[in-house]
Structure formats: structure tokens, C-alpha cells
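haha ok so turns out i had the wrong file open the whole time. this is the CORRECT one, sorry everyone. sequence first:
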Amino acid sequence: MNTPVDTTVFPVAFLADAVTTDLPAACPKPTSTTGQQETSHTLWTSPDGLVEVGVWECDPGHFTATREGYDEICQVLSGTATVDTEGGESVELRPGSTLAMPAGWRGTWQVHETIRKVYVVRTHRAEA
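then structure:
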């Protein structure tokens, strides 16, 4: 039996303009092969901690990426990049592009112009 959830006790998360919102100072991107900087702002995290929504930005350069234990869906707001999946698939990202990377995905990003995206990350529960 499903018990209705009282949504009035959960405030909404709102960002008026994700394209121009100020983000924290950028820091070195750990997986960059070219010395890139990145920054992000978490807008909302689910009460169970398994879902996160935020804004991320990274300057031009190259980095490796994996999605170990989580899925990510992102919408590009500004900038351009080429994302290459380990195994050969390549996609070109530009403003308006949507990309879904399932858990286990591996690849590289070549950021051509500083890129900003809104992301949703869903972490998988660890199996006992």
C-alpha cells in the first residue's frame, strides 16, 4: 500500500537563470590532462541523498570521465565540447544538447569553449 507523501513539508529548489548564476571559485579538475578548472553549485539533494541537481562549469581542455555507481543526465546551457565514449561513439555538445550517461559509462571530454550544464545525478544504492 502506498502512503501519500505530504509535499508541503518539502521546499522547492529554484534557480532563476542557470546560464548566468554566479558559481563558486573554480578549482583544478582532478581528471584533466590539460590543467582545466571546474566549479559547480548543488541546487538540490533528495532527502535520501541519492539524487542531486546542480550547475557545473568547466573551461576548455581535455579530461577523462567515468560514471561509477551513478547515472547522469545533463543539459548544456552554454559552450561546446566533444564527448567520446570508450569504444568509439562520439557526440558534439552545444547549447541545448542533452546527454545521458548511465552508470558504468567511460569516456573523454574535449571542451572547446567553456561549458556550463545543468545536471541530474542518480546514485545507485550499494548492494549489501
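The two ends are 25 Å apart (CA to CA).
again sry for the mixup
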